[in-house]
Design a protein that fits this description.
CATH superfamily of the largest domain: Nucleoside Triphosphate Pyrophosphohydrolase
CATH class of the largest domain: Alpha Beta
Strand content: 35-45%
Order of helices and strands: EEEEEEEHEEEHH
Number of strands: 10
Largest sheet: 7 strands, mixed
Radius of gyration: 17 Å
Helix content: 10-25%
Oligomer: single chain
CATH topology of the largest domain: Nucleoside Triphosphate Pyrophosphohydrolase
Number of domains: 2
Shape: elongated
CATH architecture of the largest domain: Alpha-Beta Complex
Length: 167
Amino acid sequence: MEPTSSEDVFRGRLFRVAVEEWPGAGRREIVHHPGACAVVALTAAGEVVLVRQFRPAVQRALLEIPAGVLDVAGEDLVTCAARELLEETGYHTSRPFEPLGSILTTPGFTDERIDLFLARDVQPGTPSPGEDEEIDVVLMSIDEARQAIEDGLIVDAKTVAALLRAS
């Protein structure tokens, strides 16, 4: 199904917002997003590599799996996931990334899709986060991560979904 009309009302660096008219759904404001990749990275000891970073939209630091936007022209999903893991945490692996499927973040108003991956036997290295990223790397066991979800310490949707799929 296609919208009967669409007008961009905002274009940003990473996404655009369109007002669209849909048959049977009426007028909607839709956030069009290029997509993203996220990775559950496991050390040889079975620890999950997480990042803690401040998120201005929710005005607090969140504990998350490494992730990033598909913002490099022509970059495939696995390369994006590996790049984000390395940039944010310094961790890397020579093993192939395993796909965990994709999720739609908030389909009521955005087409953003995040492709999830599992990376095993990751090794530490030197992170190189972006200028505007202040990231702390946190290691915890899978059981600790599950408990952190239960305790409300991990509330990021992609992280909850990815850890569930990796189990």
